[in-house]
Amino acid sequence: MAKAAEAALDARQFASAIDILVGIGWLDLEAVERWRRGQVECLEEVVRIDLPRISEALRLFRSWSVAQGLLATRTEYVARTPHRQMLRFSRSGNPAVEEAYRTHWVSPALSEKKRERLSTKTSRAPELVTVQPLNAEWKCHRCGGTGDLLMMEGPGPACLRCVGLDDLEFLPAGDALKTRRVKARSPRYAVVVRFSKTRGRYERQGLLVEPEALTDAQ
Questions:
Q1: Which of 42, 113, 128, 138 would bridge with 190, disulfide CB 3.0–4.6 Å?
Q2: pLDDT (tens digit per residue) in 121-142
């Protein structure tokens, strides 16, 4: 547990419960990503150990953090979905348990301003991601429709109309300055990616943005 916490501190100047569970091998990053996308009801459902051991790890983590003089900071965890719902960690939903999961332990070497910026950054809602599917015959699990883009949900792919993003316009990648300007003016936006078979990874294709933001930037 201590090694996992120290590795997280070295990398990012803070350590979290997720860092510990991943670091000791009880939780996969792929499972964390599914939870962040709202495809898992609570994080404990995908932790590969029983609840008493999880509780023990959280207690040890807190005790170690206090002993190291780390500073406790509450962090919001928001789902990577259009609804932006708060993510749940525990099966019980107990507020004290949820608080233990949400607490980040920050290095005291950081100044107050840097701690504030770090807290703002880690609490920020993650970017929405839509996919340009390789299979043109995919079907929306909600309405049975299809389209050029989809968003992955727990039961399967969903079309933009069903997730409430069908009013956004596509801004292709390529002009970094224009992309930054439009993104700054668009309260809602989503990253568009497509899987590259040759490189074996998803690659960014552009953004979906509000039409007014695109017009203003132009």
A1: 128
A2: 888 888 999 999 999 999 999 9
